[in-house]
Amino acid sequence: MKAVGACLVLAGARAAAGPIKPERYAPNEGEVLEIDTQAQEITIRHGYLPELDMEPMSMVFIVADPALLQRVRKGDRVKFKPGLVQGRFAVMSIERVGK
Questions:
Q1: Relative to the CA of 64, which of 11, 23, 24, 95 has its CA 20 to 30 Å away?
Q2: Is residue 68 part of a domain?
């Protein structure tokens, strides 16, 4: 009985901690494939995301701030920080790398 109670306490503490914070995701690199300013989305071909055990792929992200879409163009190599916004994968920051 004590072990079950301890598990419930730990589960309750995790639930009380709230949503996952974007800071837990490390920066990643990729290539901008598409930018949709109206939908505030960006498609990036990214590398392996170890925090999510997600293989390299092309993926549509929303942006935490629409101004981020003005910093990059289709075809740019970028360094970006993923995160979660309202349960969706999002780009929290982004910058061009190289040419």
A1: 11
A2: yes
